[in-house]
């Protein structure tokens, strides 16, 4: 159904990004989306490369600005299916402001955050999603900062669909992308992905297989996670649908306003 661009990819051996790309293509295939009415917008970084391997109209934009460009695309052409592919550094540091406002507006974008817990492509610096005490090139003695809980941030800012999966939970990830797309508003799908080169190497997490096993053991289905004690939750995280909300969708509200204005009422 889809043609993947026959480009040599630039991801490291064992990187989780290809798994996310596979789940995205599978979700789009299951949704039977029209390839000519579907577009991918990305920023800069390892995750952002994903848009270039897909045979869609894509925008590979500037660092942190994927959501700003995607907002423009959706605003100009509301009929398009717009997916945003971004990494944790791209989305939550440079693009953090765009993230909270896209969620607040509830604009109909399906945003997939590849969370490898570090800036991979730009040199292994810590990001706002790097766990406390973890090592990076800019935190050789361990990260002092507390990371964002991106799902909670999105919910607080007004997103109407929030889910989380990992590169181990591939069926769940495909289903979350489908559900996120069906939501008429801002959808966040956070994917905890394994990065054996930057994050894994700095933190001695072993091979890709070891990192996938870590995800299996630490990513707990949301219902089960809610029943854990605070002590049991401490080194785990919930996966699955974390939030569904109701709010007017921004582009539709804007069109209604313009019709009212242009009708003179
Ligand atoms: Fe993947 Fe990490 Fe390599 Fe980037 S640095 S391509 S995220 S393994």
TrEMBL record:
Which is one GO molecular function term here? 2-oxoglutarate synthase activity
Entry annotated with the keyword Oxidoreductase = yes
Q: What is its EC number?
A: 1.2.7.3
- Ranges for domain Thiamine pyrophosphate enzyme TPP-binding: 47-191
Q: What's in the keyword line of the UniProt record?
A: Oxidoreductase
Check the record and name the InterPro entries matching this protein: 2-oxoacid:Fd_oxidoreductase, THDP-binding, TPP_enzyme_TPP-bd
Give the UniProt record's GO annotations in the biological process aspect. Answer: cellular respiration
Cross-referenced CDD domains: TPP_OGFOR
Record flagged with keyword Oxidoreductase = yes
In its UniProt entry, what is this protein called? Answer: 2-oxoglutarate synthase
Q: Which organism is it from?
A: Desulforamulus ruminis (strain ATCC 23193 / DSM 2154 / NCIMB 8452 / DL)
